[in-house]
Amino acid sequence: MATRPAGDLTDPAGTAAGDAGTAAGDAGRARDDAAVLTAHAVRRAFDDRPVLAGVDLTIAAGEVVALLGGSGSGKSTLLRILAGLDAEATGPTRLRGTAAVVFQEHRLLPWKRVGDNVALGVTGPDVRARVDRALAEVGLADRRRAWPAELSGGQAQRVAVARALVREPNLLLLDEPFGALDALTRLRMQSLLRRLRAQHGFAALLVTHDVEEALLLADRILLLDEGVIAEEIPVDLDPDHPGDRPPARSPDHPAFGALRRRLLDRLGVPAA
Ligand SMILES: Nc1ncnc2c1ncn2[C@@H]1O[C@H](COP(=O)(O)OP(=O)(O)OP(=O)(O)O)[C@@H](O)[C@H]1O
């Protein structure tokens, strides 16, 4: 878990440099002004080997963006940078509001009860009531006094989501949050995330290997390749029309299938 206060994180002076006075620059600035997160020309190398070679990214308030890419393409590296967890990266990033991170592993402290894990680092009035509310929202109202070791993998990951929610983030940074769960639990967690997003309206950046998960949850998909955002694909599957069978956001819908094929093709996975 990491949270950050509002404000510029790195080198804000570089933002929007070079486009002053142009219509495109004005449009870009308007978009940035409405954004919960912006990043410009983010670069990161390990031992002189470039992994990110100039990533530009904007996430609008309330927007869910999925980040896909081959193994080792730099998805987690980018998420860590955006979460403020990597001081070595260059390129300005700016967050408006509060971000909270959910990782693939729950990262709960085993010596603290569930409620105390959720409350960790939370300040202000009514912490207990906020913790109870967050646990209720993930369906674990009755597990506040449980120890992490007493939870299933899915329950522990729900606690990790509650620990993020209690901070009332306007951006969730999700690094393969359901990647370690079995298929059924994963589906349940995906619906939970959709419901929470509808209720709270937070934006999210979802790093995933799972093309279907990206199509089920995201408004927009970004493909990371060769260190840059190589392609941006809007997920035009909403709104579902009442009576649509199957609904557009389901793997059985032809439009969903077409987008899935396009993405798998782009990722170099041959059609089954
Ligand atoms: N701390 C580090 N030190 C050295 N190399 C690193 C470090 N962190 C990441 N890398 C390298 O950077 C590249 C990108 O790693 P990253 O974990 O961001 O990829 P990814 O797209 O999230 O991969 P995956 O989908 O397999 O999780 C990899 O080659 C990895 O070995």
Automatic annotation (TrEMBL):
Every ABC transporter domain range:
37-251
Region Disordered: list its residue ranges: 1-25, 235-255
Specify residue ranges for compositional bias: Basic and acidic residues. Answer: 238-252
Where does the sequence pass through the membrane?
none
List keywords of the entry alphabetically: ATP-binding, Cell membrane, Membrane, Nucleotide-binding, Translocase, Transport
InterPro entries for the chain? AAA+_ATPase (IPR003593), ABC_transporter-like_ATP-bd (IPR003439), ABC_transporter-like_CS (IPR017871), ABC_transporter_ATP-bind (IPR050166), P-loop_NTPase (IPR027417)
Q: Which domain of life is it from?
A: Bacteria
PANTHER family hit by this protein: ALIPHATIC SULFONATES IMPORT ATP-BINDING PROTEIN SSUB, TAURINE IMPORT ATP-BINDING PROTEIN-RELATED
Q: What is this protein called?
A: Sulfonate transport system ATP-binding protein
